[in-house]
Specification:
SecE_sf; mainly alpha; Protein translocase subunit SecE; transmembrane; 64% helix; transmembrane helix; membrane
């Protein structure tokens, strides 16, 4: 659609630039009232702490049911990968420690 057709149909495309007189203005958004933090705390203040703990535990159980647990094969693979990575880092740290120790003994005799 060309600009002439677009303008003739009553619609104008926004330019993306602000402050131009011929730019399309947008409709202002309605203001949304944000909930104050004090209101949320006030509604929880009067509740029984044991019911809050019970609600928390129910939510934890509900979330745990959503978790996709690894199979035994995946668990074994992940464990081996982590152990190999740890051994590699220990070897790297030990090698650097021995190398820096020898370098210091050579420099400072």
């Amino acid at each position: 659609m060309s600009d002439e057709q677009d303008m003739a149909s009553g619609g104008a495309r926004p330019t993306g630039k602000r402050g131009r007189a011929d730019a399309v203005t947008t409709v202002p958004r309605p203001k949304v009232r944000k909930k104050a933090a004090a209101e949320g705390a006030a509604s929880r203040r009067g509740r029984n702490p044991f019911s809050l703990i019970l609600q928390f535990l129910r939510e934890v159980v509900a979330e745990m049911k959503k978790v996709i647990w690894p199979t035994k094969q995946e668990w074994f693979t992940y464990t081996v990968v982590v152990l190999v990575f740890i051994v590699a880092l220990i070897g790297l740290t030990t090698g650097l420690d021995i190398g820096f120790g020898k370098a210091v003994s050579v420099v400072f005799g």
